[in-house]
Specification:
Order of helices and strands: HHEEHEEEEEEEHEEHE
Strand content: 25-35%
Shape: globular
Number of helices: 5
Largest sheet: 8 strands, antiparallel, barrel
Strand order of the largest sheet: 3-4-5-6-7-8-9-12
Mean pLDDT: 78
Number of strands: 12
Distance between the termini: 27 Å
Low-confidence stretches: 18-26, 103-132
Helix content: 10-25%
Length: 221
């Protein structure tokens, strides 16, 4: 397998297997306490359902709830038969795809409702007395990607862990760096509309891994 195909495989496993591979392998990664984005994205199943392929990898996508932007995603690479529930959310002109991080992903577990504001107190977000916006210790984080779906082509960008780490260290984003964990993963805190603008408008630099997108083409429905 060439380097590009290998990168595609790692990225899509991270996307389709609820971040499990990234956690277990100690890869540098960025996690959110809730599905990334500000509002669910209503979708047209005709534009999403089908088989999407890249070198040595494939995703079978099926719409679960078009209004709420929920997809069932099965990765095809010979390693798993477990599908994952993916939440699509909007922020500005971006679409984020998020999956719940579980050691043993359970697609029967319902997705929590996204917070209505930055002061949300659902599991995985900061509590009302925590002004720092840091993730609580027992939070179940979400792995996320940026996705663009256009004319039967799906382009995926992963978050760039080092850039998010620097944004937290400089106080541009709330969160913490888990230096006690393998790979020093980044856990974002509760994001406000201003934080999302910083990410989507790149006002403090590009935070996604812009140079290495994964590109899939739909070959069946």
């Amino acid at each position: 397998m060439n380097d590009n195909a290998s990168r595609n495989t790692r990225a899509l496993r991270w996307f389709a297997a609820a971040g499990c591979a990234a956690l277990l392998s100690g890869c540098a990664a960025v996690y959110s306490p809730v599905p990334m984005g500000e509002e669910p994205m209503a979708i047209d199943a005709e534009q999403w359902d089908g088989l999407w392929t890249a070198p040595d990898i494939g995703l079978v996508v099926k719409t679960v709830d078009a209004e709420q932007g929920l997809l069932d995603v099965l990765m095809i690479d010979g390693t798993t038969t477990q599908s994952s529930l993916v939440q699509l959310m909007r922020s500005g002109g971006w679409v984020f795809a998020s999956v719940r991080v579980e050691e043993e992903p359970d697609t029967d577990e319902p997705l929590p409702s996204p917070p209505e504001g930055a002061d949300a107190t659902d599991e995985g977000t900061a509590g009302p007395d925590d002004e720092s916006g840091l993730v609580i210790a027992d939070a179940k984080p979400w792995a996320f990607l940026r996705v663009v779906n256009k004319e039967d082509t799906l382009v995926i960008w992963m978050p760039h862990a080092d850039r998010f780490r620097r944004a937290i260290e400089r106080g541009h984003l709330p969160g913490r760096i888990a230096e006690e964990e393998a790979g020093d993963p980044v856990y974002l805190g509760t994001l406000t509309a201003d934080h999302y603008r910083l990410i989507t408008e790149s006002t403090e630099g590009v935070l996604m891994d812009w140079d290495e997108p994964v590109v899939l083409v739909r070959s069946g429905r």
